[in-house]
From TrEMBL:
Key words of the record: Flavoprotein, FMN, Oxidoreductase
Domain NADPH-dependent FMN reductase-like: 1-147
A molecular function GO annotation: oxidoreductase activity
Protein name, per record: FMN reductase
InterPro entries reported in the protein's UniProt record: CE1759_FMN_reduct, Flavoprotein-like_sf, FMN_Rdtase-like_dom, NAD(P)H-dep_FMN_reductase
Root EC class: oxidoreductase
Organism of derivation: Nonomuraea helvata
TM segment ranges: none
EC number in record: 1.5.1.-
Length: 200
């Protein structure tokens, strides 16, 4: 079982990565899995170059392959101006819109105030629905005050939300089983161009 964590935190350390780590720990307590973390901050220039050139470089291609070949995803973004970060959206824009079809995804976000928690429902969930992923019912939002350990009956605490979302993702992964390995022959771009040139 392969799980890939995509985190779009901009600082190091970041609350976004902290939330991603807590979600990962909760999921791996439910099932055994190989885990890989992709820090989008490290790929920001590569993603921008992909938009300009139309092609991913080696590092970005490897990250995209890790995401598309994973059995499940945990996707975590900071919330800016009431929505996901531009870096987060840009990364998923360079992935083929059918590549995540049927893939279980746990969505999560961090922000300074609980007022932005609905961004998970009006921004992240529709994004992954468009990509045809299967998003778990519980989305996890962590506001600044959640890190103090306090909880109340209205928010039900960060810990229980993490546990519930992790259980839902683990259940989907167990039901779906490991992704079948498929080998696809890749024709280098140079060969594809050569085939288009008229014969002299």
């Amino acid at each position: 079982m392969k799980i890939v964590i995509v985190t779009a935190g901009l600082t190091q350390p970041s609350s976004t990565r902290l939330l991603a780590d807590r979600l990962t720990d909760a999921v791996t307590r439910q099932l055994e899995a190989d885990v890989r973390v992709i820090e989008l901050r490290d790929l920001a220039v590569d993603i921008a170059n992909n938009f300009v050139t139309g092609f991913p470089n080696g590092r970005l291609r490897e990250a995209i392959e890790a995401v598309t070949e994973a059995d499940g995803l945990i996707a975590v973004t900071p919330i800016f101006s009431g929505s996901y970060s531009g870096l987060f959206k840009s990364f998923f824009d360079v992935i083929e819109n059918t590549a995540l079809a049927g893939k279980p995804v746990l969505i999560a976000a961090t922000g300074g105030t609980a007022r932005h928690s609905l961004a998970l429902e009006h921004a992240l969930r529709p994004l992954f629905a468009y990509l045809r992923a299967v998003v778990v019912p519980t989305a996890v939002y962590a506001a600044a005050e959640d890190w103090g350990g306090a909880s109340d009956t209205f928010t039900d605490g960060l810990g229980p939300r993490i546990a519930r979302a992790a259980e839902e993702l683990a259940g989907l992964l167990r039901h779906r089983g490991p992704r079948a390995e498929t080998k696809e022959e890749v024709v280098p771009f140079e060969e594809q161009l050569a085939a288009l040139r008229p014969l002299s």
